[in-house]
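Record DUF4040 domain-containing protein, 181 aa.
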Amino acid sequence: MSIEIILQVIMIIIAISMIKTENNLNLIILFSAFSLIAAGLYFMYNSPDVALSEISIGSAIIPLIFIIAISKQKEFVVINHLKDDFLKDNENEIAGRGYEILKNFCNHYDLKLKIIDSKESHIHGIFREKNIDLIIDKCSYTNNYILKGKESSILMNKLEQMTKDIDNIIIIKEGENETVD
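=>
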């Protein structure tokens, strides 16, 4: 068996591992290894210029950008507009069904949950001054809880997947210009 075939099989295994992993750091390491192997294959197929580009961009720059982006996302900031027991405050301790959902979500992604009561400070839109990730509101007609967040956020897609089977929770993903708090 030639080295090219072995490297291609290893790339397939790494690609499958990348799809299955849930840890962001492991994903970055696998991505970098995939890129290095691809660069080796480019070199073996007489494309040294493409191999050099793949090493510099795919194995170094892109993983560095991912690490920087992930390190910036340390907390999940939520604005609470509710006055009921979904995010109930028990003697300076937050509890309730909504808190449990958000806490499990944040624990899964190693984020610190920060809940800001809407009357605590003046807020300029969902994506403005405080870099808010989520706004929680309640529809007065249906009594559904509305969780609004950025349409471009991967976390919002994950939160939507986690809450799809929970009754009376609606996820709304908004673009940057559509926000109203």
